[in-house]
């Protein structure tokens, strides 16, 4: 719904929040259908705007530094404090709390919004960079979301990063309560503390006015740590930024096999892991750009696709072992017999897409050339337009896709891989 903004003058109190820009995302962790359903029909035009409406915002995340952190955005606590203040309240005096939003002055304090991945939130803060688009068609109004104190707040802020999000604005809707979900959140995070005994002496509220935090239903979302990995190697759970444990390490191992994750597995779902997941999703046609909802999140669709690839790898391995066993039997000897080179020549273990490079691309081209689909005289290790067109023709010939515009056309995904390895 298109809206017409009415500029509302608000006295700007210096914001005490640290804005952090990154390229990574936090999982949409829950839905709030009940309250939202009741609010959908709510409309008011007191400020010249009809509610609710949906608009694209450029969102970022911020946190409040503590002197006991292991890591700082600018390198040290003092620098963070000098840059952004101590961050214990918003511009309207409200004590900071997870999900509190800083918005441009055209959004009055108390404005309710629904942000996918965060929940139902309210505006209580301002910021020098948190401004309106002012009619610029290449920009969006800005929002900043408070993610917590100290290391965990910094971690969440980095995981959210900067992204364009479709957000529903409900205006000054008293019937709509705030409901927020944050990964790994605990009740202990309501106060700034280095020792668990309350607000740290270095994070004082001074003598300025302080508005009590509103009652907010913050869902505690458990961060998965140790789960049993099935014997077939499949991924058992969904994962998101901030998660830790053996399931994250297993995911990183799989991403490394597919050449998306190129460092040692840590068991921590950090920025590198989120980016690797995004590149995997992009190659599989699950998301197109990093600002798209779900990008960098190992959710149900991404996990299903990954498990299909793991199953295909297992299927191919068993097929090769079966071939090897039959060759041994035919040789009437207990000494293992090498499989002829052409028996595994076209074996391709991982998914491939436009822009891929490496020996697996060369194998793919050799297979497609042998079967009459790859028209180039030269075989290379780069997956370009010629390779993509050859893959599309192979997929159409084998009824994997019906035309070149169908989802997955030109991408060597699980179904295409299975057919290639069956025919190799």
Fill in the keyword field for this structure.
13% strand, 3 domains, six-stranded mixed beta barrel, 424 residues, Muramoyl-pentapeptide Carboxypeptidase, domain 1, alpha/beta, elongated, 29% helix, disordered N terminus
Textual characterization of the structure:
This protein is an alpha/beta fold and 424 residues long. The chain folds into three domains: 18-221, no CATH class; 223-339, PGBD-like superfamily/PGBD (Muramoyl-pentapeptide Carboxypeptidase, domain 1, Orthogonal Bundle); 345-424, Orthogonal Bundle (Muramoyl-pentapeptide Carboxypeptidase, domain 1), CATH 1.10.101. 29% of the residues lie in helices and 13% in strands. It contains ten helices and nine strands. The protein has a six-stranded mixed barrel with strand order 2-6-3-5-4-7. A hairpin with a 3-residue loop joins strand 4 (112-115) and strand 5. Helix 6 (300-330) runs parallel beside helix 10. The model is unreliable at 1-42, 196-210 and 332-346 (pLDDT under 50).
Summarize the structure.
By secondary structure, this protein is of the alpha/beta class. The protein has helices at 33-39, 77-84, 150-160, 246-257, 271-283, 300-330, 341-344, 359-370, 385-397, 414-423; strands at 18-20, 53-64, 101-102, 112-115, 119-125, 142-149, 163-171, 179-183, 217-221. It contains 10 helices and 9 strands.
